[in-house]
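Honest question from a wet-lab person: if I give you the sequences of every part of a complex, can you actually get the arrangement of the whole thing, not just the pieces? Trying it with mine:
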Amino acid sequence: MNIGEAANQAGLPVKTVRYYSDIGLVLPSHRSTSGYRNYDSTSVKKLIFVKRARSFDFSIEDCRELLDLYQDKNRTSSNVRRIAKEHLVQIQRKESELKNLRLELNHLVKACAGDDRPDCPIIDYFS
Amino acid sequence: MNIGEAANQAGLPVKTVRYYSDIGLVLPSHRSTSGYRNYDSTSVKKLIFVKRARSFDFSIEDCRELLDLYQDKNRTSSNVRRIAKEHLVQIQRKESELKNLRLELNHLVKACAGDDRPDCPIIDYFS
DNA sequence: CTTGACCTTCCACTTGATGGAGAGATTATA
DNA sequence: TATAATCTCTCCATCAAGTGGAAGGTCAAG
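Yes, you can. This is the full assembly:
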């Protein structure tokens, strides 16, 4: 199938599929004589795999590694687990940072009258 | 003072201060005859202000707006509050997305044996 | 034969910086 | 005073992960 149909089946924009092809993440199974990218069901499955992994915020490089393992019949689940676990740590770190941010900002917003006067604890805090 | 000293006082890399100057976010108070950026205490305060706001993940454009309000004696705290509140909503949304991600990924990692065998619920889930 | 949908490559833009090259300015030391 | 070290300047490239658009080739239907 052509890129449009493949993108459709994977639920990705055509541009993104072409981008994944450009960076060698998911290559089309072959090219037509006129240069059209052609995707078979295997390559579409890879696109879907990448889409899922990306929705988990895995980086493109992580996806590349996971995709290798996905295709590797000799893989060990410990390898996959390692990548996922490292990623989990990143997510947890980010989440707690965001939480601190939210608490502090919430505090500031609550302290701010939000009226016509120029007095503002938010501005004061930043100054 | 020169850019190095200003950057130092603001706790920002010189490159960043120059970048803020380039995009017109915090301009140096003037330039020396030889073209050196010169920062007075007011412009350094603005740098510090931006640094704080950025540490709260406010975008550069938000910072620009907050900086305008910071300098505006006729500002109303409601304007500042609006920006901060919108930002708070973004942070909360991001935080809950991250939480969902963490829970699901944690689930997957826990379900994965992480041993020598190729069977892996993480890979299965993505496939 | 032409229209329209789809495909191609290439280039620019996004955010918020950061790194480096090459050159000029200033300051410290010998 | 010479020179070396440090600072600063501008300009260009790069990062992630695409997205948007231009200019042009391809294909099927009417």
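Two things worth pointing out. Chain B has a mean pLDDT of 91. Chain B has two domains: 1-57, 90-127.
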